[in-house]
């Protein structure tokens, strides 16, 4: 977004509204709902093996989310922020009667006919998937706290893609049912709450224009992490169809 569109001189602190607009512009430009692979996925254009490959590789990301949140919490001196942020770990790992998001993702991979132990092992994941996911965990661990918080703000854009995914996959694939889509239905509630908290946090704590721009760049980085995973899937399983050695092969079902 240009300085003129933001209505502010270079170097001047953005207003909260301008700051949020800059973040929203990143999603409009490069959130992964625009990736060709997702258009194929939601449009029912993939075969079961390709959907399996997506779910298996995406598990690497799902399993890393509570680790990156735990890494963030480990750096926080503010007790209240730790209390507020720790629920994100529990959203994915589960607590009490709630099995958590990772378990709900495994219900999806179970429903797609993938061996659970194989999925959890991540042995069949694409190398690029593993690199992208670990880059995100490292980013959150190493960056200034406000910037690390900002990297979660792709959640602002998530409800739209979840709604499209639920409707598109239920309509277009006879091997998908309501049970295996439970993860996405839960995130329709969780993601907006989490995004609002993180957005309010960075609006309060990014006190210079440089910090604000670093937060916007963090959202851009996170979009790139998600995009890179789909690039790898498209390259390996759609076109040209070059599956790396050791990666999941739908034709063998055992990688």
Overview of this structure, please?
- The longest helix has 29 residues, at 209-237.
- The protein contains 12 helices and no strands.
- By secondary structure, it is an all-alpha fold.
- The protein is globular.
- The protein is 69% helix and 0% strand.
The CATH topology corresponds to: Heme Oxygenase, Chain A
* Portion of residues within helices: 55-70%
Number of helices: 12
- Say how many strands there are: 0
The succession of helices and strands, N to C, reads: HHHHHHHHHHHH
Largest sheet: none
Briefly summarize what is shown.
The protein has helices at residues 3-6, 16-30, 36-42, 48-75, 79-93, 101-111, 116-121, 127-142, 145-150, 158-172, 182-205, 209-237. It is mostly helical and 255 residues long. The chain starts with a helix and ends in an 18-residue tail after the last helix.
Helix and strand topology:
Elements: H1 3-6, H2 16-30, H3 36-42, H4 48-75, H5 79-93, H6 101-111, H7 116-121, H8 127-142, H9 145-150, H10 158-172, H11 182-205, H12 209-237
Helix pairs in contact: 2-12, 4-5, 4-6, 4-8, 4-12, 8-12, 10-11
Task: Tag the structure with descriptive keywords.
disordered N terminus; 69% helix; 255 residues; single chain; 0% strand; 12 helices
């Amino acid at each position: 977004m240009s300085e003129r569109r933001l209505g502010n001189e270079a170097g001047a602190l953005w207003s909260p509204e301008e700051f949020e607009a800059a973040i929203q512009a990143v999603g409009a430009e490069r959130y992964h709902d625009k990736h060709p692979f997702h258009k194929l996925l939601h449009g029912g254009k993939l075969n079961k093996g390709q959907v399996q490959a997506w779910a298996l590789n995406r598990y690497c990301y799902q399993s890393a989310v509570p680790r990156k949140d735990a890494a963030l919490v480990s750096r926080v001196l503010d007790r209240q922020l730790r209390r507020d942020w720790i629920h994100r770990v529990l959203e994915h790992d589960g607590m009490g009667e709630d099995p958590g998001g990772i378990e709900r993702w495994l219900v999806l991979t179970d429903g797609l006919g993938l061996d659970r132990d194989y999925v959890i092992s991540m042995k069949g994941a694409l190398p690029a998937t593993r690199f992208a996911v670990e880059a995100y965990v490292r980013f959150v661990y190493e960056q200034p706290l406000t910037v690390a918080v900002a990297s979660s703000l792709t959640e602002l854009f998530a409800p739209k893609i979840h709604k499209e995914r639920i409707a598109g996959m239920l309509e277009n694939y006879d091997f998908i049912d309501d049970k295996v889509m439970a993860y996405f239905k839960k995130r329709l509630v969780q993601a907006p709450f989490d995004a609002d908290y993180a957005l309010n946090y960075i609006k309060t704590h990014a006190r210079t224009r440089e910090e604000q721009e670093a937060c916007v760049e963090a959202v851009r980085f996170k979009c790139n992490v998600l995009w890179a995973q789909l690039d790898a899937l498209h390259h390996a399983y759609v076109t040209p169809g070059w599956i790396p050695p050791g990666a999941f092969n739908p034709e063998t079902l055992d990688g």
